[in-house]
C-alpha cells in the first residue's frame, strides 16, 4: 500500500487533507476486489473472464463460476467435483432456522425475511473465527449453498405455501425453480428455458466491485463480525430502489406508464425532476456508457419471451422509453444508459417470478460476490476497521444549561397532579384506577 493524501475542498473554501490508501495493484478501487473491472471502459470481467461469455457458456455453480470468484482461478476437474459436492451438502438448512419462518406474517416482503434469516444463521454458526482460513471457506460455501434455499422459503412463506427442500438430483437453477414453484401435491417439471434464464441472471449479478452492498459487507466484516451477520447487512443495503431494489421499481414504473403513448409525458416529468419521478433502471455510478450486463439482459429478454411464446406489453413500454431517453439531451449529457436492472424484471416476469422476489434473486446471486470480497479482505490482511472520516461542520463547543421553566415543572409534580385528579374521578365513580 502507498500512502497518499486526498484534498477535500468544501463549498465554503476550507480544505481538508486526508490520508488515503492507494492500492499498488493495477486498476483497483480503494477496497480491492479482484472480480471485476475495468468497468470504466464498459467492460465487465470476473477475474479476467468476460461476463457475457460466462453467461453464454457456463453454469453458475456447476461449471465453477462461483468458485472462480471465490478462489481466483477456474477449478480443476477434481476441485470442481469437490466444490459441487460440498455446496450440495450445505444446502440443508438447520431446522431451527426453518422454524423461524413460521413467525413471519403472510405478505411480509421476502427481503425483510431474508435480512432476518440470513442474520439468524449467525446464531447457528456463532463459533466461527473469521481469521481462520478453513472457517472462512466453510462460511463462504454455506452461504452460497443456503441463501437460494432461504430465498425460496421466504417466497413460500409470503404466500403461505409449504416450503420445499432442495433436491440432490437438480442443478442450482433447476433447484431454484423447483423450490419456488413445486408443491408436495404434484410432480414439478423444470422448464429448461427457465433454468437457462435463472443461470444467466445468477451469473450477471454475482459481483460488481465496490457497490453499496459490497462495501457494506466489507465495512461490517472489517470489525471481524460474524460473516452471516455481515451478509445480512449487505442484503439490507441492497434492498433500496437506488441499488438492488431498482429491478422491482422498474416494473412499477413501467406499469404506471402503462402504454408507449404515455412515455413522452413520463420523460418530461423525469427531466423536470418532479418529486419521486426518476427513470428507474437507468444510470450508474461507474458506467458512463451502456452497462454491458444490460446488453446481455436485453438479448436474454427477447430470447426468453420468444422461446416461451410470451408477449409482455411492458416490453413495448420499456423499449419505447429506452428509445426516447437515449435520444434526449438530458440523458445524453448526463451519460445515463440502461443498467442491468432495466430489462431483468421483464425476463423474470416471463418466468412467473413475482416482483417481490426480484431483489431477493439479486441478493442470492450477489452473495457469491459478497463472500468472495469478504474472504479476500480478510485473507489479504485488509482488516483495518472501516471508519469513514466525518467532517463536522456544526456549532462549536457550547454549554448546556437546564431550567425548571423550560421543563414546565418537575415530573414528580406533574405525576402527583395527575394521580390526585385521577383519584378524585375514581371517588366520583367516573374512572377505574
Ligand atoms: N433518472 C433521472 N435522472 C438521473 C438518473 C435517473 N435514473 N440517474 C441520474 N440522474 C441525474 C441526476 O439527477 C443528476 O442530475 P443533475 O446533474 O441535474 O443533478 C445526474 O444524472 C448525475 O446523477 P448522480 O445522482 O450523480 O448519479 P449517481 O452516480 O449518484 O447515482 C444511480 C447512480 C444508479 C443511483 C442513479 O443513476 C439512479 O438513481 N438510477 C436509478 C436507480 C437504478 O436504476 N439503480 C440501479 C443501479 S445499477 C445496479 C445496482 O448496482 O444495483
Please summarize what this structure is.
By secondary structure, the chain is mainly α.
Any descriptors?
433 residues; mainly alpha; two-stranded antiparallel ribbon; 4 strands; binds carboxymethyl coenzyme *A; Citrate_synthase_sf; tricarboxylic acid cycle; Citrate_synthase_bac-typ; Citrate synthase
- Give the names of the bound compounds: carboxymethyl coenzyme *A
For the largest beta-sheet, the strand count, sense and barrel status come to: 2 strands, antiparallel
Distance, first to last CA: 70 Å
**Going across the major beta sheet, what is the strand order?**
1-2
What is the 3D shape? Answer: globular
Pathway: Carbohydrate metabolism; tricarboxylic acid cycle; isocitrate from oxaloacetate: step 1/2
Protein name: Citrate synthase
Pfam family, one: Citrate_synt
InterPro entries: Citrate_synth-like_lrg_a-sub (IPR016142), Citrate_synth-like_sm_a-sub (IPR016143), Citrate_synthase (IPR002020), Citrate_synthase_AS (IPR019810), Citrate_synthase_bac-typ (IPR024176), Citrate_synthase_sf (IPR036969), Citrate_synthase_typ-I (IPR010953)
Structure overview:
It comes from Durusdinium trenchii. Pfam families: Citrate_synt (PF00285). This is Citrate synthase. Belongs to the citrate synthase family. Pathway: Carbohydrate metabolism; tricarboxylic acid cycle; isocitrate from oxaloacetate: step 1/2. The protein is mainly alpha-helical. About 55% of the residues lie in helices and about 5% in strands. The protein has helices at about 50-55, 65-70, 75-90, 95-100, 110-125, 135-160, 170-180, 190-205, 210-220, 225-240, 245-255, 265-270, 290-310, 315-325, 330-335, 340-350, 360-380, 405, 410-425; strands at about 1-10, 15-20, 45, 50. The protein has a two-stranded antiparallel sheet. Strands 3-4 form a two-stranded antiparallel ribbon. Helix 5 (about 110-125) packs antiparallel against helix 6 (about 135-160) and helix 13 (about 290-310) runs parallel beside helix 16. It is globular. Residues about 20-30 have low confidence and may be disordered. The structure holds carboxymethyl coenzyme *A (CMC). The site of carboxymethyl coenzyme *A has 19 residues, from loops.
Amino acid at each position: 500500500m502507498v500512502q497518499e493524501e486526498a484534498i477535500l475542498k468544501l463549498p465554503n473554501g476550507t480544505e481538508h487533507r486526508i490520508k488515503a490508501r492507494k492500492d499498488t495493484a493495477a486498476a483497483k478501487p480503494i477496497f480491492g476486489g479482484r472480480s471485476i473491472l475495468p468497468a470504466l471502459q464498459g467492460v465487465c470481467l470476473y477475474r479476467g473472464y468476460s461476463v457475457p461469455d460466462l453467461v453464454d457458456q457456463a453454469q453458475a455453480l456447476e461449471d465453477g463460476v462461483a468458485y472462480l470468484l471465490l478462489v481466483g482461478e477456474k477449478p480443476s476437474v477434481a476441485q470442481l467435483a469437490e466444490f459441487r459436492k460440498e455446496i450440495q451438502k450445505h444446502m440443508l438448512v438447520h431446522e431451527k432456522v426453518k422454524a423461524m419462518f413460521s413467525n413471519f406474517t403472510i405478505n411480509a416482503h421476502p427481503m425483510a425475511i431474508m435480512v432476518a434469516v440470513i442474520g439468524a444463521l449467525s446464531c447457528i454458526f456463532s463459533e466461527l473465527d473469521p481469521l481462520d482460513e478453513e472457517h472462512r471457506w466453510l462460511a463462504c460455501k454455506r452461504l452460497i449453498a443456503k441463501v437460494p434455499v432461504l430465498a425460496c422459503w421466504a417466497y413460500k412463506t409470503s404466500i403461505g405455501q409449504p416450503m420445499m427442500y432442495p433436491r440432490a438430483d437438480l442443478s442450482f437453477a433447476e433447484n431454484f425453480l423447483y423450490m419456488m414453484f413445486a408443491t408436495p401435491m404434484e410432480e414439478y417439471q423444470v422448464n429448461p428455458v427457465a433454468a437457462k434464464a435463472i443461470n444467466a441472471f445468477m451469473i450477471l449479478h454475482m459481483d460488481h466491485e465496490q457497490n453499496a452492498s459490497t462495501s457494506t459487507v466489507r465495512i461490517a466484516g472489517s470489525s471481524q463480525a460474524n460473516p452471516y451477520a455481515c451478509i445480512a447487512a449487505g442484503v439490507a443495503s441492497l434492498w433500496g430502489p437506488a441499488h438492488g431494489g431498482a429491478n422491482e421499481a422498474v416494473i412499477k414504473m413501467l406499469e404506471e406508464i402503462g402504454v408507449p403513448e404515455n412515455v413522452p409525458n413520463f420523460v418530461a416529468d423525469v427531466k423536470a425532476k418532479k418529486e419521486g419521478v426518476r427513470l428507474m433502471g437507468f444510470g450508474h455510478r461507474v458506467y458512463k456508457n451502456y452497462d454491458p450486463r444490460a446488453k446481455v439482459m436485453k438479448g436474454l429478454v427477447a430470447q426468453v419471451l420468444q422461446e416461451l411464446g410470451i408477449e409482455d406489453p411492458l416490453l413495448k413500454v420499456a423499449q419505447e422509453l429506452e428509445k426516447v431517453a437515449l435520444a434526449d439531451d438530458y440523458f445524453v449529457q448526463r451519460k445515463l444508459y440502461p443498467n442491468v436492472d432495466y430489462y431483468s424484471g421483464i425476463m423474470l416476469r416471463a418466468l412467473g417470478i413475482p416482483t417481490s422476489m426480484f431483489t431477493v434473486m439479486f441478493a442470492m446471486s450477489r452473495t457469491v460476490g459478497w463472500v468472495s470480497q469478504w474472504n479476500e479482505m480478510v485473507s489479504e490482511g485488509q482488516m483495518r476497521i472501516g471508519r469513514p472520516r466525518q467532517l463536522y461542520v456544526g456549532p462549536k463547543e457550547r454549554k448546556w444549561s437546564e431550567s425548571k421553566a423550560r421543563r414546565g415543572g418537575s415530573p414528580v409534580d406533574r405525576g402527583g397532579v395527575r394521580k390526585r385528579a385521577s383519584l378524585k374521578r375514581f371517588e366520583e365513580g367516573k374512572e377505574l384506577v
